[in-house]
Design a protein that fits this description.
extended, mainly beta, two-stranded antiparallel ribbon, binds zinc ion, ATP/GTP-binding protein, 9% helix, 6 strands, 4-stranded antiparallel β-sheet, 103 residues
Length: 103
């Protein structure tokens, strides 16, 4: 029998996460680091935001995406869902696939 112990699952989010509803929150890995990504249904937004993806305004009460680098919630940005998805799909090595072997 192995004497290995299970670590207790006691890790809790930091207290400054308490203001944020975590239900729709996910972590996405990007080149710059881990992004906290939150889907907004629109009902909670009460002012328009400018999307950094297309530089257009996101009208009030529009479902959209809020994302920020983990630990940098102050720097969070509001994105159109489509613009965030486009950004996620953008890979730095798009030209490399031409001669790549297929699996
Ligand atoms: Zn946009």
């Amino acid at each position: 029998m192995s004497p290995r112990k299970n670590y207790p699952k006691n890790k809790r989010p930091k207290s400054d996460d308490r203001d944020i509803a975590t239900s729709n929150q996910t972590i996405e890995e990007h080149a710059e680091g881990s992004y906290v990504v939150r889907k907004i249904t629109g009902s909670t937004s009460n002012k328009p935001y400018r999307c950094p993806g297309c530089d257009q305004m996101i009208p009030m009460a529009t479902p959209h995406t809020v994302a920020w680098l983990e630990g940098d919630e102050e720097g969070r940005r509001h994105w159109h869902n489509a613009c965030w998805a486009k950004r996620s799909n953008r890979k730095p090595r798009t030209e490399r696939t031409r001669n790549a072997p297929r699996y």
